[in-house]
Amino acid sequence: MYSALALIAEQRISQAIEDGTLRTDGWRGRPLPMNTDPFVPEDLKMAYKVLKNSGYLPPEVEMRKEVNRLEDLISKTEDAHQRLKQMKKLNVLLMKIDQCRARPTRLDHHPDYYRKIVERL
Asked: Which residues, by range, are in coiled-coil regions (predicted)?
């Protein structure tokens, strides 16, 4: 039992495949990418999608990117003074993230991670 909408969709897809305007060979046998973000609340998904399509990211994502960049920079920096400076920036950024979230992300809340950072220094 198809609804009218499903029938129309099937006909248009079949027509597009026959015309060659719909190419399926690139996706054949592969799962389609999931564009859903499980961490975004349901009531904000549409707004986040519009912002993402416009080239904007949520502040939390921007901060996480900066955290990853700083962690990478700390691991590659040879100068102890520069490394300490970057670690201070990282700690401030993690405190800002903590203020926005219910679950803590600060280094002192993750002793194993903190120990690994200190060992690298």
From this structure: 60-90
